[in-house]
Amino acid sequence: MDDFRSAGNAVHGARRIWVPLVVVGVLFALTAVEGLAAKALPDGEALAAGTVIEFGSARQVAVQVGEGWTLDESASDLRSRLVLVRDDVVMQLSVIVFSAGRPDGVREIWDGMAQTMKIEEYRGTEVALGEPAAFDTKWTSGGLQGSLQVETRVGAVYVLPAEDGAQAVEATVLGPLRPDPAVWDAAIAVVDSVAFAGEEGA
Amino acid sequence: MSGAPPAAAPRVRAMDVRSLAFWGVIAMSAFGLWTLQRNAVPAALAFPPSTALNLAVLLSCLAVGVWLARRVLRPVQAPPWSGTWLALMWGGLAACGMAILMNGRLLSFWSKALGLEASGAWSAALTAPLNEEAAKAAGVVMLAAVSTRLVRSAADGLVYGALVGLGFQIVENFTYGFNGIVMAGGVEPFAATFQTLWARIVLTGVGSHWAMSAVAGAGIGYLVSASGRSAARRVRVALGCFVLAMAMHFLFDSPLPGGTAGTLVKPLVNFAAAIAVYAVVRRGFRARWAAVSHEETAAGSLTADEARSLSRRGARHRRLRGFRSGPEREAQARLQRLQLALIEERIPERLPAEAAEPWRKAVAAARPAG
Question: Does the entry feature the keyword ATP-binding, yes or no (chain B) (predicted)?
Answer without folding.
Answer: no
